[in-house]
């Protein structure tokens, strides 16, 4: 399913470029709106997050281009690894070259999935040895998916979730094959499907108030430019919502609806 592949592509690559103070020397991120830190800010596209309520709970309470009210999952990853700052958006780097050795974010909201942009062999040849690739989440549990394909039901769309499951099985097979043929490759498949599915279907048990709706406007469909400061209904406390606009929950952070 092309939609599933394109909308939830994420790759975190750690290059062995030398000894650094954090647990790893450099962090490189590839993906779409889930991990876009501002690469789209000055691009010719309507897929931007440069206006409120995006960034409402981030540093300085202002939008940065993150499609979220607060920190991204990769922001937390950088902190956990010991970095004192986040990998900068690639387009924000005034000078490339050696500056890239400190890490960078290449994610772009609304991007597609093409073989030419996701070849692990090329990354491996550049020195990547530690790579994390998340599975697809339960696509049928997105508020927009339920609204568009749920046929008046408030339950997750089984067909879309099955598409994600089938893709994840194939992704696991490919990952195992790559580890068998590429020496010293530490490729980790991060299962986010089941935890997020449990979070939505058992939301009250996990301390959340709302699972069906997202945290912007009606919560049923709004995303990107439709999620703005003029939209009526944006929630006050995003941490109460587990309705999957994905990956970040709790910790004062919730995704606004994503692309």
UniProtKB/TrEMBL annotation:
Q: Where is the signal peptide?
A: none
* InterPro entries (UniProt xref): GDSL, GDSL_lipolytic_enzyme, SGNH_hydro_sf
Per the record, the similarity remark reads:
Belongs to the 'GDSL' lipolytic enzyme family.
> What is the name of this protein?
Putative triacylglycerol lipase
**Which Pfam family, an example, fits this chain?**
Lipase_GDSL
Q: Name one GO molecular function term.
A: hydrolase activity, acting on ester bonds
Superkingdom of this protein's organism = Eukaryota
Coiled coil ranges (UniProt) are: none
Task: Record the organism.
Answer: Lupinus albus (White lupine)
